[in-house]
Recover the amino acids of this structure.
């Protein structure tokens, strides 16, 4: 019974943080690292977690996790990333914010900005920034994805191509160690690619747990964005590539 409660606590932490480590769990729960490794092995065997070096992550296959789970996943890191990204967006700017819980966090940080024009294909972002009286909000119409309030498809892309944005703020579902930016939904990928092509500066907001996940469709490369905002330093090889690509990397952790 105690083991079941302990494993439930481990799962709850994984859902909040995206990743758990053996050493941290041992210290938090007052259990030996050997016992924690056994718990993680059992959770992985049942498919509830995936083992990685030093700990475990939430499993991801070729489908995304639910929107509510994504809202809670690594919430503190997303908030810190969003605050730093929003600080680099001036007043009097035109911005596109796409689908995602990280971009929604950026929207919250823009509530104090003035004279913004924000175009979005995210109903949640439109509602958030509707509270800012100094922000003009424009919805890029398309097919509604009820699971997270996203609008996608050819109509969305067509509307995006009518603009030239100062800034695009995009999220992603996964990041490949090569620097490829990945997603699950081909319709959403087409929208993200249109956003990148129609903006002067491209800001990617994604925490480093995205490197522990995989998704089948390529949006672009880190080479194609101006700045990558994340919560921890990148692996040395990828950091060197970003320097060669002249892609700025801003870390909050």
């Amino acid at each position: 019974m105690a083991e079941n409660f302990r494993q439930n606590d481990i799962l709850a932490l994984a859902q909040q943080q995206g990743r758990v480590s053996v050493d941290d769990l041992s210290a938090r729960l007052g259990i030996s690292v050997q016992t924690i490794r056994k718990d993680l092995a059992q959770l992985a065997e049942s498919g509830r977690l995936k083992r990685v070096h030093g700990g475990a992550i939430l499993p991801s296959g070729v489908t995304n996790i639910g929107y509510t789970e994504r809202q809670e996943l690594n919430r503190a890191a997303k908030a810190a990333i969003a605050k730093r990204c929003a600080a680099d967006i001036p007043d009097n700017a035109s911005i596109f914010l796409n689908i995602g819980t990280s971009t929604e966090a950026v929207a919250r940080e823009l509530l104090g900005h003035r004279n913004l024009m924000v175009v979005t294909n995210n109903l949640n972002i439109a509602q958030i920034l509707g509270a800012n009286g100094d922000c003009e909000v424009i919805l890029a119409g398309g097919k509604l994805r009820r699971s997270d309030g996203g609008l996608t498809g050819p109509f969305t892309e067509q509307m995006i191509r009518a603009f030239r944005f100062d800034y695009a703020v995009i999220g992603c579902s996964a990041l490949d160690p090569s620097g490829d930016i990945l997603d699950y939904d081909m319709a959403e990928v087409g929208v993200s690619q249109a956003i990148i092509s129609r903006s002067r500066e491209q800001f990617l907001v994604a925490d480093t747990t995205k490197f522990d996940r995989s998704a089948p469709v390529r949006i672009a490369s880190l080479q194609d964005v101006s700045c990558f905002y994340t919560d921890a330093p990148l692996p040395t090889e990828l950091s060197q590539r970003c320097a060669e690509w002249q892609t700025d990397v801003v870390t909050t952790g």
